[in-house]
Amino acid sequence: MLYPLAWLVATSFKPANEVIASLKLLPSHLEWSNYSTALDGVNEVSVGQLLWNSLLIAGGAVLGNVISCSLAAYAFARLRFRMRGPLFAFMIATIMLPHHAVLIPQYIVFNQLGMVNTYWPMILPKFLATDAFFVFLIVQFMRSLPRELEEAARIDGCGPFRSFFSVILPLTRPALITTAIFTFIWTWNDFFTQLIYLFEPEKFTLTLALRSFVDASSQSAFGPMFAMSVFALLPIVLFFLAFQRFLVEGMANSGLKG
């Protein structure tokens, strides 16, 4: 399982003639120029700018999903209102809807709003609780919390919003961290959506910049490309290692365990 990762890191240090021709894992000598070329970026955009663009999109998506999905989940899990059951079933059904089926309508809407070639198409939907999987995840977690806590807060004069922010939200931390981890990883690795909406090189992410190493003649700068792949992979690995304990806890306590 770890061999492809080891091969990626080792290949980022190989000379260009060894990337395809040699089957050895370790390079004959370390080609540090691959990383210096990767640090220069592509299309006169540095790796630092590409990294910032990726972090901006992923961070906005994480913030949007944590806020909107937790609010929607609280409404479905703890509040009583008309059509709650059918609306929840409709929300769950959207999980089976392919992303490509709504891509063209979404593009038309964002194009008419003047948001194409901006980061809003990747961030704004996250603030509208469009990821039904995370709503379901948090709903399952909230249903396991004792209702006596809310009843005690209601006796003390707390309304629904105060009960949510002061009682339910702190107890839902494992599910929220699970949502944040998956959202960060999925958004960071998203290539197709960013390719559709972003045109200017200075707005590219690391994922899009990797594609720019292939020119019109299909000749690739493999060494720098793999070096930039290491830069693109490193934040995900660090983010996952930092929050792995909360991820396991959240999945185990959210009704998804076997």
From TrEMBL:
It is found in: Cell membrane. The chain crosses the membrane at residues 50-76, 88-110, 122-142, 163-188, 221-243. It is a multi-pass membrane protein. It comes from the Bacteria. CDD domains: TM_PBP2. Keywords: Cell membrane, Membrane, Transmembrane, Transmembrane helix, Transport. This is Carbohydrate ABC transporter permease. It comes from Streptomyces lonegramiae. The lineage of its organism: Bacteria, Bacillati, Actinomycetota, Actinomycetes, Kitasatosporales.
